[in-house]
Amino acid sequence: PVTAGLPGNTYHIRFIYKNRATKECLMKEGNILEAYVYHSLWNRALVDDVKLNVAFTWEADEAGEALDPDAVTNEIDLVCTYNMQTFFISCKQTLPQTPHLQEIIFFADYFGADGKAVLVTSNSMTGENSSGRKDALISLRADKMGVYYIDRDMIGRTIEDMKQNRLAMYLQKIFNGD
């Protein structure tokens, strides 16, 4: 239960979720963006294959070692293949930072077959700011590091933008090397 209200007035609010999947989707930041990217890929038939929330264990020689609670594990939001290339996609609702770029480029280089790194952010502070100027710092860094970067403006800010599936258009350009 959550306690809220003005001084002297206390209200107890309890959330009951229909199922565990719904709870996890709403509780973890980024899940909805990951699902949107995943469905954009499949609905437009952009990829040969795509996997969501790919987890891997470092230095596990046998299957049992991967289940060890002390094993070092990582997760990649989406991994997809297209024309014999592997694309590692990180989805961030937070304001992207250099470590986000470093992480996804490392995974693409280390695990990918001709791996490419993509960072997608829906953060409202990315893209064009209130003065009409594009905030280019993270975009410039991504370009220098070889990470494809999709910001809020590229995804779209309106329902109409999302109906047009601008995200799929940008992803297709990345997959085609444009």
Give a written overview of the molecule.
This protein has 178 residues and is α/β, with parallel strands linked by helices. Helix content is 38%, strand content 24%. It has eight helices and seven strands; from the N terminus they run E-E-H-H-E-H-E-E-H-E-H-E-H-H-H. It has helices spanning 20-27, 31-43, 63-66, 98-111, 137-145, 152-155, 159-163, 166-175, and strands spanning 2-4, 11-13, 49-57, 73-82, 85-92, 116-121, 147-150. The strands form two sheets. It has a five-stranded mixed sheet, sandwiched between helices. The protein has a two-stranded antiparallel sheet with strand order 1-2. Strand 6 (116-121), helix 5 and strand 7 (147-150) form a beta-alpha-beta unit. Helix 4 (98-111) runs parallel beside helix 5. The longest helix has 14 residues, at 98-111. It is globular and about 60 Å long. The protein starts with a strand and ends with a helix. The relative contact order is 0.12.
Helix and strand topology:
Elements: E1 2-4, E2 11-13, H1 20-27, H2 31-43, E3 49-57, H3 63-66, E4 73-82, E5 85-92, H4 98-111, E6 116-121, H5 137-145, E7 147-150, H6 152-155, H7 159-163, H8 166-175
Parallel strand pairs: 5-6, 6-7
Antiparallel strand pairs: 1-2, 3-4, 4-5
Helix pairs in contact: 4-5
